[in-house]
Amino acid sequence: xxxxxxxxxxxxxxxxxxxxxxxxxxxxxxxxxxxxxxxxxxxxxxxxxxxxxxxxxxxxxxxxxxxxxxxxxxxxxxxxxxxxxxxxxxxxxxxxxxxxxxxxxxxxxxxxxxxxxxxxxxxxxxxxxxxxxxxxxxxxxxxxxxxxxxxxxxxxxxxxxxxxxxxxxxxxxxxxxxxxxxxxxxxxxxxxxxxxxxxxxxxxxxxxxxxxxxxxxxxxxxxxxxxxxxxxxxxxxxxxxxxxxxxxxxxxxxxxxxxxxxxxxxxxxxx
Length: 271
Description:
By secondary structure, the chain is an alpha/beta fold. The protein contains 10 helices and 11 strands. The chain is globular and about 55 Å long. The chain starts with a helix and ends with a strand.
């Protein structure tokens, strides 16, 4: 077991970013990703956009460690060789779909997120309920997971991931990776989920969100990365990236992009 001194030394020497460095994923002659480079910093929301098949979910799998890149690497707080139990305290991942067939209660499912943490059961229960409250799911805590709707299940898994990285880590900054977190949600809970992501970033967490909705990305993102055919088509602030020219080239649609009258971000209007 590591000493307190060695943990503190590791934290002092840590680079506080999540870096994707020249990542490519190749299967035979086909590139699923090619030469991807960007950095996710603590305190910001970065959205990844692109048409179906652009490589978004492959990128998520590479960053989370589920898939090894053909070339390049991903550095989590300066390293690509963290033990899994350390990585779990810094990197929370909500995949596009999560399945669970056991008749656990919602509270028990969210408690699973606390497995890597050193806190006792009372504290774990307190954090579990706070995480459920954040996703508007506390009223579900005693229900069986298998009886929930798709949107309710998505919110429960969001709470589980939040519970996993709830505490500040001695090993480095924390990052939240969300793969299409709003796809099964009604409009109110879409807004709630992205507001929550924004709040986590405002409190110092780095958040990466894969999504399809250009206007939600425009409203909640500090930066946007757009993928097309496995390559980076654009990167920058919403105003830099969400232009009629870029959207037309990537998504093959005609749009106008005025300024949003309330939030003063780009407002993408289809023709």
